[in-house]
Amino acid sequence: MKQRILFLGPPGAGKGTQAERLAASHNLLHLSTGELLRAEVAAGSALGQEAEAVMARGELVSDTLVLAIVRARLTCCNGGWLLDGFPRNLAQADLLQQLLEEIGQPIELVVLLALDDETLVERLLARGRADDNEAVIRNRLVVYSDQTEPLIAYYRAKGLLSSVEATGTVEAIAERISAVVG
Ligand code: AP5
Ligand code: MG
After folding, report:
1. Element housing 40 (H / E)
2. Which of 44, 141, 149, 166 gives 20 to 30 Å between its CA and that of 12?
3. What residue's CA is closest to ligand 1, atom 6?
């Protein structure tokens, strides 16, 4: 069974939904940079104040800020982990690679959750988070295709990528993920 896993995929693909389930059943630490940033915003911390407007536009928060959040949590523990929504661009992927080399915990698997744009927009509009209005969702999709999608080729070249069809019920998708996690 894989212990150090990344979930990659567009906004609304179900990264959070599936990561929560897999982390619970496999006893992994679930780190969602989006959730951690929303917690900072809710707490009104300096970091949250810096991130809030950027998130409201659907742009990416600075790499250094996000890396600081991840580093603090990954270096604390020796068990397995599941990163959801990080890395988000090639610079973050390189920073993560350096950090993981430092702590001797290489990535074992990258799961790509693949879904068409119209279904993504439908799911997110039905949820209605602060950044789930049509204009911001469309911008998040553009940011994803410009900045995050290049990570697919990056991890495929390292032989780490498994693509999973993210359509159907939560349970059906969870079964496909279990099959690649082992
Ligand atoms: P983040 O929180 O990561 O949001 P996102 O990538 O836009 O993705 P979502 O969380 O919206 O979707 P998801 O794939 O997790 O799907 P979910 O399970 O929720 O990031 C938000 C912002 O924070 C970014 O825009 C950026 O500003 C900042 N940020 C975060 N990380 C960053 C980083 N590393 N660097 C820089 N900035 C960063 O599901 C979506 C909905 O669909 C839910 O309502 C769910 O119930 C439903 N659903 C799930 N599965 C199914 C199913 N099978 N059938 C029907 N409905 C389903
Ligand atoms: Mg999420």
Report:
1. helix 33-43
2. 44
3. 11
